[in-house]
Amino acid sequence: AAAEKGGFASFMDKEIHDQPQAVTDTLLGRTDIAGHLVLDDLRIDESVLRSVDKIVVIACGTAAYAGHVAKYAIEHWCRIPVEVELAHEFRYRDPVVNERTLVVAISQSGETMDTLMAVRHAREQGAKVLAICNTHGSTIPRESDAVLYTHAGPEIAVASTKAFLAQITATYVLGLYLAQLRGNLFPDEITEIFDQLRAMPDKIQIVLDRSDEVRKTAQDMVDTTSVLFLGRHVGFPVALEGALKLKELAYIHAEGFAAGELKHGPIALIEEGQAAFVIVPSPRGRHSLHSKVISNIQEIRARGARTLVIAEDGDDAVAPFADVVFSVPRCPTLLAPLLTVVPLQIFACELATVRGLDVDQPRNLAKSVTVE
Ligand code: G6P
């Protein structure tokens, strides 16, 4: 087993470090000789995909958060409304889906029963289902109309890390494919975004190379009982995933919020010493979100919070209000989750490790939940 871990202390640690490769491999072979994007296994007429008027992403756990990221990118690039729903909720609420709905089922294992039942239900309603899956020949892709495989390699640790980055990457590929098919973006825009995507693995590696400070912060927080995670725009699902990782691995109460929601309730939780991660959007973004999130950091810090800030390289505005800053390389806003989630994974893994827990097999959890 030690050899399989490739010198890392755990599969989790190894898989976190496999992430540049997982993204690289998921992007391989996505373009034909003419430079057009292609999917792996498409049994849906292109004319049907052109007339799709809604996308519904169904998934559970970490895969559902990949769906949340997808919503921001696909709506922006393709102008198709995207809903994201937990598969077990979707299945039992009489959802509005029909022949013009594309359902995207995201599952690392391809065997999650809740997601499979939702796939079957969607197809019964006439919807086309595209699976984003990491396991060749598993049930969900076999029962779907199209497949886009993530190439993260086998994921052994129960809590998902590299499959998550690969899933996000696959949804970007899907979004660009649909934009190409439906003419929402110019070919050179698609090429440019795809090139930016191809530059992400090296940037993920840079984040990994900077992990010492994250680890040290986690070690210092061994006795922490509660951590909050705040993010906005694509940083919101990253906050949710950061909280989930901490619950799963370290059994610490954690909650992710949309930073804009802070003043509508969660700010009441802030008291002296409360630790809060804040994912700060790029100051170069088109919106004023950067300054809004900086204000959030000031608000919680003024009330005693310990602020652990994830920000872009060169973002000087955050430093005065941050107890610690974890910097990530610059990249386009929509692609940033591939970078900003990595310190949160390392934080959860390290904190669980210093608490003496088995990060590969957390209590009560299963890698693949094959019962409803
Ligand atoms: C389980 C795992 C999670 C995973 C979820 C969905 O709960 O512990 O890590 O995110 O299932 O699994 P899937 O294989 O469908 O992506």
Automatic annotation (TrEMBL):
GO cellular component: cytosol
One GO BP annotation of this record: protein N-linked glycosylation
Broad class of where this protein is predominantly found: cytoplasm
Active-site residues, Swiss-Prot/TrEMBL: K367
Keyword Transferase: yes
Domain (SIS): residue spans on this chain: 44-184, 217-362
Oligomer and partners: Homodimer.
Function in brief: Catalyzes the first step in hexosamine metabolism, converting fructose-6P into glucosamine-6P using glutamine as a nitrogen source.
Full protein name: Glutamine--fructose-6-phosphate aminotransferase [isomerizing]
The species this protein was found in: Pengzhenrongella sicca
UniProt lineage: Bacteria, Bacillati, Actinomycetota, Actinomycetes, Micrococcales
Full protein segment contained here: 248 to 619 of 619
